[in-house]
Amino acid sequence: MIKDKVKKIYKAKVKNVEKVSISAYLIKIELPQAVEVKAGQFISIYCKGLTLRRPFSVFSSKDNEIGVLFKERGEGTNYIKSLKSGDLIDIIGPLGNGFDIKNKKSLIIGAGIGAAPMAFLKSKTDELNIESLFAAGFLNKDEIPSVITPDKIYTDDGSYGESGSILNYLGVLINTYNPEIIYVCGPYIVLKTVANTALKYSVECQVAMEKVMACSIGVCRGCVIDIKKDNKVINASVCKDGPVFLGSEVVWQ
User: For 210, how many CA atoms within 13 A lie in the half-sphere containing its CB?
Assistant: First the structure.
């Protein structure tokens, strides 16, 4: 995977915070300089009054502006939601390893808020003129962020797009689209199922792992997972060695 060795702390300015679904918000921030962000990388935001930073996948990046999609889940995201245009925030990033984008027919899968970095990846494949299909799954119509426009949408309750979990359609997607590579981000069960299905169909798969992080730079070892390397099982930190891994190398529980 792609490694970004430069970790920088920025005092960024909030451009705006917008509610984009029943439970999701989009914050756009302006950095003091332009940065290069790879799809799959994340930033870590300091939230006032809290000890640990909060990590968020990047949804969009252009010049010195970064967008992050998030759901309100606790004190940290409640603080970010409350920010106003012009407020200053402290961020570290971009962090971690992004997707290794290959010139192959691509199936891009996102589930829930995990669709955010996949929308970013889709924009990158489009820029590179790589044929790709972006499929996303949500609980219901109200959970679909207005700023995301997948090629195919699945809702668990059938209120929009295809009815049922996106996991129920993996075989159909692979058989009809015939991808050469699959990229995915979402809850653990989605990553595991997609990775195992890709293996069954002998399709390369890259997964963006989600894990609670403390330091976000690989020091605390609080986000360790097991991966297979050279016929051995070793530890890897999601924040530093990932968050993107080959689906075939992750030891799924």
Answer: 19
The answer to whether residue 144 is domain-embedded is: yes
How does pLDDT run across 70-81, given as a tens digit for each residue?
998 889 999 999
Cβ atoms of residues 206 and 239 within 8 Å: no
- Rounded to 5 degrees, what angle do the CA atoms 40, 248, 39 make? 10
Q: What's the average model confidence in pLDDT over 55-76?
A: 94
Domain count, the chain: 2
Degrees (nearest 5) of the Cα angle 161, 59, 50?
120
Within this chain, do residues 117 and 233 fall inside the same structural domain, yes or no? Answer: yes
Residue 79 sits in a domain of what CATH number?
2.40.30.10
Residue 230 has which token pair? 């050279």
Residue 44 to residues 122, 212, 252: CA-CA distances in angstroms? 23, 12, 26
